[in-house]
Structure formats: C-alpha cells, structure tokens
Amino acid sequence: MNVKSFLLTVATVFTVSSLFAQANILNAKSPEEIGVRTESQKAVDNDKPLEYGYVDDRDILFSKMTWEKIVLDERANFPLYYPIDTNNIGSDRRSLYDVLMKNIKNGKIENIYDDSYFTTKRTLKDIQGALTMIDTTEYGIEQLNAGETLSAEYINKREITAADIREYHIKGLWYFDKRQAEMKYRLLGIAPVAPDVNFIDDSEPDLVPLFWVFFPDAREVLHEAKSFNNKNSSMPFSFDHVLNARRFQGYIFKEENVQNDRAISEYVSQNALMQLLESERIKDKIRDFELDMWTY
After folding, report:
1. CB burial class (10 A; 0-12, 13-18, 19+) of residue 288?
2. End-to-end C-alpha distance for the chain, whole angstroms
3. Alpha-carbon distance 198 to 132, whole Å?
4. Range in 80-94, 130-144, 274-288 the model is least confident about
5. Cβ neighbour number for residue 271 with a 10 Å cutoff
6. Which residues form the signal peptide (predicted)?
7. What gap in Å lies between CA 217 and CA 107, rounded to an integer?
8. Predicted TM-score of the model (pTM)
C-alpha cells in the first residue's frame, strides 16, 4: 500500500509539473494571464541578454570566419524548427522563423540584409518576392482574356511558413583571445533557408537564404522568445542562449579564404561524404590551434 501511495505521489508531482510549465501560471487569476508577466515582475527579473565583453583587436591572436549549415531534420536542431502548427498551442511557443518574421514586421528587428557580408540592406517589401508566390490558374487567364473580372478562386497564393524552413545558415568568427588564452566563438549573422517559393512544389527545389539578420541586432527579441527544453519544460532556453551556447548541430560549408571565400561544394563537388570530411578538417584546424598553443 505504501509503495502504491509513493508511486501515485510521484506521478501526481510529474503531472502537476507538466501542467505548470508556463510562465506566471501559479500567479495567474485567469487563463488570459498565463504566460504574461507584469511590469513589476519584469523589473524584478531584470531579464536581459548577457552582454558581450569588449575584445580589443590587439588581443586576437588568431581568427577564422566560418559559415555553417544547421539542418533542421536533425533531432538536436528541433528546438529551432518546432512548433510549425500554432493553432493548438500557446502563444508563448513559436519557432525561430516565426519569431524573426514577427519582429521584422513589427519593426523590432530594423535591419535585414541581402547577404552574409551585410553590405546591402533590404526591407520587408523587398523580400516579399522571396516569401510569397501569387499565380493565376488557366481558368483565371481565360477570364482575363475574355475581358472579365478575375475571380479570387482562380488566384493561387503560396507563402513561406515555418514548416517550409529546411535549414539555417549562420556566420561567425572563431578567435583566440590571448588575454584569456582560449578559443572563443562570436555569432555574427543568421539566415533562414527555404525552397525557392516559385518552385516549392518540385521534388527537389533549390534552397535559398531568404534574408540575413545581423545577430547582435536581434539579441533582445531572441532573448525574450523561448525555445522548448525537452528535458525540463519549466526551464526553457531563449533562442539567444541556444545560438550563443551552440546548442545545435552545425556543419561548416564555407570558410574565409583567398579564393573569394569559395564554398566547400565549389571545390569538392558531387560527393557529400568528402564535403563532410572537408568540413571536419576545417573544424579540426581551428580546434588544433588552441591545442597547439599548449604544446612545447
């Protein structure tokens, strides 16, 4: 009897823990207050992203710029991809793509760029062509040719959603800080990658980066948005923490080099295994620099 009571108690505790996984749920007086913190709570929490320390250029003994690919099919990267269907889930849980798009639309992320070198700024209107496809069916074309008003039912509209995002590309700098005598990483940019919206229904559509975000510019909004922690739902990780702490699986697909920063696929073509081995070689080269500093 005691064993049964103990097991029942444990089951009840875990059930209650799963129910009370959202912010402010214990203090909410109505369902609408669940997940919403008051201004006084925010002031007490003082919840802000951890500031980067200042790094003088003279303290950088070695550096290497790399571009990595985060494939969302891999289990380790699921927190960046899900949830893709938000109809039956709380408003506090959104995918990384939804967080980026929401804050681009409301102006909290002011600057988006055309490429990873952040030379050409874009606006939301500029990238609409990469996010949305509007096509007219054959019946609609017949209506137009007949001089009739085009019916809405003959217009096909397809928009890139979180479910269509296949990868993220990130750009970052590995550098050896001689003051602290360790290799560090600073994330500089991130881009969602999806099939070309005009060929999205093809069997193997080409993948294209939709836009680039300068990561330090988006840290505030990424800190406020939380990803799901599968091991402890009461302690979700912010997207800022997930990306800065490198809690993902990534593959280097390009490094800065004398050949105009050419990608691995440009000199190791049509061989996925050799491309993966080249990615590991670049990673080992960066890692070995720190190890070699302590070898006499």
Report:
1. exposed
2. 66
3. 8
4. 130-144
5. 11
6. 1-23
7. 12
8. 0.80
